[in-house]
Specification:
alpha+beta; 3-stranded antiparallel beta sheet
């Protein structure tokens, strides 16, 4: 519903205020409701102002400190102060253009002192500066500035693409660092595992050789004591030849055997026994020395 009035009376809607004149001079403000006027006394309803909150979107194009052109979308929410509706009615012919002009002035004075990153981080400070300036100026004209919202900051499309590429490159660089650290940790752990495995393998071989040496020594001593007239060398030769034939038998019984060419004969058997005995004696002597 709109405000209705005639020569002798008028109706002012809710959330509105009427301006009553007498002979072209402001007389009073009319509250919402029906009012009677005396046209013979020069009294009439000059106009009606809404006291509801209005919204004005202002687009400002400006340049930042680092020479980047940006477009800012600023939303101003304002309303007429009921008690000062006469000032709002008589002082400003086009309040929206007036508000827009002050927003342009404040933003274009403040944004060039900021870089693009600072503008994104401190857009609230820009809105606060606009609010303070508009409250000081528009308050004298009967308008109240309720809120200032920096709705959007739009750099040039080429700048936005460059910013996205920089961000993507930084993330790829960070991912490469993490990947390199992970590969380094894997290599270190693998090397540590190999070193530990080799150490344990060496310990096992050393213990195996020590056990073989101890077993042979015990067998030689037992055989020498039980069979009279035998020397330790003869017993050692017998044991070596026995182990040699046991090894040949194990190779023949293995399901996954391969062809193995070994020198065979009485002389070769003695040579093999000498080599085995010498190796075991050297291992025993090294264990004693350690």
């Amino acid at each position: 519903m709109g405000n209705t009035f005639c020569v002798f009376g008028g109706c002012v809607d809710q959330a509105s205020v009427g301006v009553v004149e007498r002979w072209g001079r402001f007389e009073r403000l009319a509250e919402p409701g029906f009012h009677c006027f005396n046209p013979f006394a020069g009294q009439w309803l000059a106009g009606v102002l809404s006291t509801r909150i209005n919204s004005l979107d202002v687009k400002i194009e400006t340049k930042t400190k680092d020479n980047v052109f940006v477009q800012l979308v600023c939303s101003i929410q304002f309303r007429v102060v009921k008690a000062n509706a006469d000032d709002a009615f008589y002082e400003l012919q086009n309040p929206r253009e007036q508000i827009q002009a002050y927003v342009f002035d404040v933003v274009r004075a403040l944004v060039p002192r900021m870089t693009l990153d600072e503008l994104f981080e401190q857009k609230g400070e820009v809105a606060k500066a606009v609010l303070e300036e508009l409250e000081k100026v528009m308050g004298a004209y009967g308008y109240s500035i309720e809120h200032i919202l920096m709705v959007d900051i739009l750099p040039d499309p080429s700048v936005r693409r460059a910013m996205n590429e920089i961000n993507a490159a930084q993330r790829l660089q960070l991912a490469s660092v993490y990947k390199g650290e992970a590969e380094k940790i894997l290599q270190v752990k693998k090397a540590e595992a190999e070193a530990e495995a080799k150490y344990l393998g060496g310990v096992g071989v050393a213990r195996q050789r020590q056990a073989i040496t101890d077993g042979l020594r015990e067998n030689i001593l037992n055989f020498s004591h039980k069979v009279e007239g035998t020397s330790a060398k003869e017993v050692m030769d017998l044991i070596m030849v026995t182990q040699y034939f046991d090894t040949i038998r194990d190779l023949g019984n293995s399901s996954k055997n391969t062809t193995v060419f070994l020198p065979h004969g009485p002389g070769h058997v003695r040579d093999i026994s000498d080599q085995i005995r010498n190796g075991l004696m050297e291992a025993a002597s090294s264990q004693v020395g350690a």
